[in-house]
């Protein structure tokens, strides 16, 4: 299991799919990186030679991935929050940012439903009666 940019890459997978474990690398970019490094995308990650790993790291230096990308995204969000833009307010409140509806759905951003005084659990209802 090789380690690239601080991330363990699965050894039994093809390179084009294993590179997707890096933040900021999708299938298209993974294929482009493998092509630039001169590595067959169908090759398994465990079969990489140290020279191929070095060339892969050299190509990855040209892309903004992992820590740099995460840092940039969080700085962008922090900037939106600090200037008080609408998108920043949505980030601060934990609501959908890109115009989705919130009267229904949006459970991923809003979290689980909060019941106000209603007892939904059967066991809790029995405890209330006693």
SSE layout and pairing:
Blueprint lengths: L2 E2 L2 E2 L6 H4 L8 H11 L12 H11 L5 H18 L2 H8 L13 H4 L11 H8 L1
Helix pairs in contact: 2-3, 4-5
What are its keywords?
7 helices; 2 domains; mainly alpha; 130 residues; Helicase, Ruva Protein, domain 3; single chain
Could you walk me through the main structural features you see in this protein, from its secondary elements to its overall organization?
The chain has 130 residues and is mainly alpha-helical. The chain has two domains: 3-62, Orthogonal Bundle (Helicase, Ruva Protein, domain 3); 67-122, Irregular (30s ribosomal protein s13, domain 2), CATH 4.10.910. Helices cover 49% and strands 3% of the residues. It contains seven helices and two strands. It has helices at 15-18, 27-37, 50-60, 66-83, 86-93, 107-110, 122-129; strands at 3-4, 7-8. Strands 1-2 form a two-stranded antiparallel ribbon. A hairpin with a 2-residue loop joins strand 1 (3-4) and strand 2. Helix 4 (66-83) packs across helix 5. It starts with a strand and ends with a helix. The model has no long low-confidence stretch (mean pLDDT 90).
| Tally of separate domains | 2
**What would you call the shape?**
elongated
| Helix and strand pattern | EEHHHHHHH
Report the count of strand segments.
Answer: 2
Rg for CA atoms: 23 Å
CATH class division of the largest domain: Mainly Alpha
Task: Give the helix proportion (percent range).
Answer: 40-55%
Query: What fraction strand?
Result: under 5%
Query: Count of helices?
Result: 7
